[in-house]
From TrEMBL:
Top-rank lineage group of the source organism: Bacteria
Domain Molybdopterin-guanine dinucleotide biosynthesis protein B (MobB): from-to ranges: 6-139
CDD domains recorded: MobB
InterPro entries, per the entry: MGD_biosynthesis_adapter (IPR052539), MobB_dom (IPR004435), P-loop_NTPase (IPR027417)
Protein name, per record: Molybdopterin-guanine dinucleotide biosynthesis protein B
Any single biological process term in GO: Mo-molybdopterin cofactor biosynthetic process
NCBIfam families: mobB
Species this chain originates from: Roseibium aggregatum
Sample GO molecular function, one term: GTP binding
Pfam families: MobB
Length: 175
């Protein structure tokens, strides 16, 4: 798959996935790790605005448009009828880092925590049908599972669990 450790957060819509991922990114970053993320979207999205030059480049037919500034760069790839790339293809494009956190990708085989909230659009547990789900994070009591269960707000414990699971090495201390 990839050289860098990969760990996922999965769950139904409104289960708290994005909030959990952002809080884990902040926690691992605070601990000195370099973290990247991959977010799977089930809907059409656009990160560009109609009045920009890069939008015009894509509209003219460019397959890829790189947008570069002194603060950040982005590479947009138009599929133009091609199949959606697999997770491995996306991970191959990620720059080296200490950890890649993945949001979504319910059907992929990387280790995952299932996020559950009472406000979720679906309360059917995913873990019983997905052996890659190795823990649950919930805002309510969870019974009938042999998996570790974390409070959805216990970010430190989940970060420790993820670090141990992927055998995350401590970041190099600077001088």
């Amino acid at each position: 798959m990839t050289e860098q450790p990969v760990f996922g957060i999965t769950g139904w819509k409104n289960s708290g996935k994005t909030r959990l991922v952002t809080r884990l990114v902040a926690e691992f970053t605070r601990r000195g790790f370099k973290v990247s993320t991959v977010k799977h979207a089930h809907h059409n999205f656009d990160i560009d605005k109609k009045e920009t030059d890069s939008y015009r480049h894509r509209e003219a037919g460019a397959v890829e448009v790189a947008l570069v500034s002194g603060n950040r760069w982005a590479l947009m790839h138009e599929l133009r009828g091609e199949d959606e790339p697999g997770l491995d293809d996306i991970l191959a494009r990620i720059a080296p880092c200490d950890l890649v956190l993945i949001e979504g990708y319910k059907r992929e085989g990387h280790p995952k925590i299932e996020a559950r909230r009472t406000a979720s659009t679906n309360s059917e547990p995913l873990a019983p049908k997905d052996p890659a789900i190795i823990a649950i994070a919930a805002d309510h009591p969870v019974a009938d599972t042999g998996l570790p269960v974390f409070d959805l707000d216990d970010i430190g414990a989940m970060a420790d669990f993820i670090a141990a699971t992927v055998e995350l090495k401590e970041p190099d201390s600077v001088g």
